[in-house]
């Protein structure tokens, strides 16, 4: 009976958060999977083991592929309490690539909406020639050579290198 408390505790973990987020689902699913793997290594009565196997199979059937969901994976990756620590190396790389593409798309969209052309600096003295005229002409031609993808490639690791938020804190405050 004690083993059924795992399911109850998992439910409680998700339902007692002030703001339940889908980012917690992978943590709970992997946690249950790991606990049942450990329990099944122990020596239990045949009936208890049978119940544990059924619960494990049911949990795996319902939550086993939750980390394959792009939406839930991105939500977990963007949750500052978890970031990428819950993913295996190939999943981490895949989610990282998806996020870089999403950030690059957002940067592109923002640049289209804001407009990337900047007006050249005005000459401070109007028609008077100054020593900086050549600089002003060159400045008006200057265009950064960074692409939206290169900007995203910089931003995603910058996010990942920040400290994790403690799990008992609300990520959106």
Task: Describe what you observe in this structure.
This protein folds into two domains: 1-68, no CATH class; 87-173, no CATH class. The longest helix has 26 residues, at 89-114. It has seven helices and no strands. The chain has 173 residues and is mainly α. The protein starts with a helix and ends in a 12-residue tail after the last helix. The model has no long low-confidence stretch (mean pLDDT 80). Helix 1 runs antiparallel to helix 2, helix 2 packs antiparallel against helix 3 and helix 2 crosses helix 4. The protein has helices at residues 5-15, 23-41, 46-63, 70-78, 89-114, 133-141, 148-161.
Keywords:
173 residues; mainly alpha; 2 domains
Report the β-strand fraction as a percent range: under 5%
Give the C-alpha Rg: 26 Å
Task: Show unreliable segments.
Answer: none
First-last Cα distance: 38 Å
The total of helices stands at 7
Give helix % range.
55-70%
Rough outline:
elongated
Mean pLDDT: 80
Count of domains: 2
Order of helices and strands: HHHHHHH
Class based on secondary structure composition and strand pairing:
mainly alpha
Q: Characterize the largest beta sheet: strand count, sense, and whether it forms a barrel.
A: none
Can you give me a brief rundown of this structure?
This protein is mainly α and 173 residues long. Helices cover 61% and strands 0% of the residues.
């Amino acid at each position: 009976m004690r083993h059924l408390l795992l399911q109850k505790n998992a439910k409680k973990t998700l339902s007692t958060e002030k703001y339940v987020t889908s980012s917690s689902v992978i943590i709970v699913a992997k946690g249950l999977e790991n606990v049942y793997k450990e329990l099944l290594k122990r020596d239990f009565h045949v009936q208890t083991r049978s119940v544990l196997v059924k619960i494990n199979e049911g949990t795996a059937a319902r939550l086993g592929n939750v980390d394959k969901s792009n939406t839930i994976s991105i939500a977990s990756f963007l949750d500052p309490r978890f970031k990428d620590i819950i993913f295996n190396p190939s999943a981490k790389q895949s989610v990282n690539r998806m996020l870089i593409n999403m950030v690059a798309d957002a940067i592109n969209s923002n640049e289209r909406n804001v407009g990337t052309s900047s007006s050249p600096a005005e000459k401070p003295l109007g028609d008077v020639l100054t020593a900086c005229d050549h600089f002003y002409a060159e400045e008006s031609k200057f265009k950064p050579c960074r692409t939206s993808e290169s900007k995203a490639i910089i931003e995603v690791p910058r996010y990942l290198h920040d400290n994790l938020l403690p799990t008992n804190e609300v990520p959106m405050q």
